[in-house]
What does this fold into?
Amino acid sequence: MKKLQNEKLKQQFIHSSDYLDQFSFDISLDTHLFFFPANSYIVKEDNPPSHLFYLVKGKAKLYDTLANGKVALIDFFSPPCFIGEMELVDENQTAFSVQAIEDCWCLAVARKDCQKRLLQDTLFLQKLCIYFAHKNYRNIKASTQNQGFPLSQRLASFILLTQNEGTYREQHTQVAEYLGVSYRHLLFVIAQFVEEGYLEKIEKGYLILDIEALTQLSNEVKA
It folds into this structure.
């Protein structure tokens, strides 16, 4: 994590992301710009975030480490969206890990400076309610897609979502559980993608060779 002292870039992100529309007061003076390199943590598990983050560029994933040591993927973040809003509303909320899939930029306000004012801001709370509703709908949609579409289509969509600079590196066990399929079935479909020339196996991952084919498969899920 790196706090950027770049006022021009901060203002560009503020205006391009409709950030100020989330609040009824001018929060720009209390807003900072943070940069998170790919694979770094925006939020660490069991460590409540010190800031309310607003993702303006990049992709990130949310996951939990279970009591048996397994890692369970929960959700994915694309801009613009809040990160750390649950902990802002409920200080007793256990923090899950949020990890950058690719380089991420976030606007952020320190909880200690703005939490009380934010929780008294009716516009901000209204925006949060809408945001929670959209997240719930997205999770329901993902669940129904797991039941209604072939793995090849869902995996293509997942690869495009989690790839970074044309490379896919997610762990098979976590992906199989997230997509609701067996480890063996997942490996079979990935092997098919390699055989058909969509992917190429490289060290610690896969290189995407035919993004158009994967996009076509993914669009069938989104239709």
Observations:
- The chain has two domains: 2-144, 149-220.
- The radius of gyration is 19 Å.
- Residues 11 and 28 are 9 Å apart (CA to CA).
- Residues 2-144 form a domain with the Jelly Rolls fold (CATH 2.60.120.10).
